[in-house]
Amino acid sequence: MNKKNVKVASGKENKVEQQASEKRQRKLSEYGKQLQEKQKVKEMYGMREKQFRRFFRNASIQTQGAPGENLLSMLERRLDNVVYRLKLSVTRRQARQIIAHGHVLVNGSYVYSASFLVNIGDVVSLVDSVASKTKFLEQVIDKRLNIGIKVPEWLELNKKERKGQILRFPVRADIQVPIEEHLIVELYSK
């Protein structure tokens, strides 16, 4: 009989704890939503606060287009993102590492900065020495190239030569991830 009472008591306690946790979860403030959106985008592109703020400032200075759309366009044009979108790496973090190790060329020149902004007509390719690293090619590049992931329309991929070209600047419609850039603009406009 005592065991039965113990089970009932613990069941009641769980219900009380659940109700208390529901009360603690408050509705997010407007500032909280803005901050959450900024943090999501920052983490997605693997950036730190100072660098993200600099990108936002540069996007705001541009006269054409809305600051939020300019920001997303600039983030998409970063070299680490372009390498990732061209399916030459599995993640953006891996793309940054490939760039930092000197395995990426832009228009035939070595680029070591992941935040390098590509322009229309730029050709992004891998260094010839990467072709001799068969395990890297098999496990990273060829594996991702053969997956049915579509390359964005603003990029052109040459699978055989493992390189890509920038056809145009990315626009808001090219970014499939649900991002509410107006919240980021509102946050930084305060």
Provide a compact summary of the structure.
Helices cover 52% and strands 9% of the residues.
Give an overview in words.
A hairpin with a 2-residue loop joins strand 1 (104-106) and strand 2 (109-110). The protein folds into two domains: 30-74 and 179-188, Ribosomal Protein S4 Delta 41, Chain A, domain 1 (Orthogonal Bundle); 87-169, Roll (Structural Genomics Hypothetical 15.5 Kd Protein In mrcA-pckA Intergenic Region, Chain A), CATH 3.10.290.10. Helix content is 52%, strand content 9%. It has helices spanning 2-24, 30-45, 49-61, 67-77, 79-85, 92-100, 134-145, 181-188; strands at 104-106, 109-110, 123-126, 155-158, 163-166. The protein is of the alpha+beta class and 190 residues long. Strands 2-1-3-5-4 form a five-stranded antiparallel β-sheet, covered by helices on one side. It has eight helices and five strands.
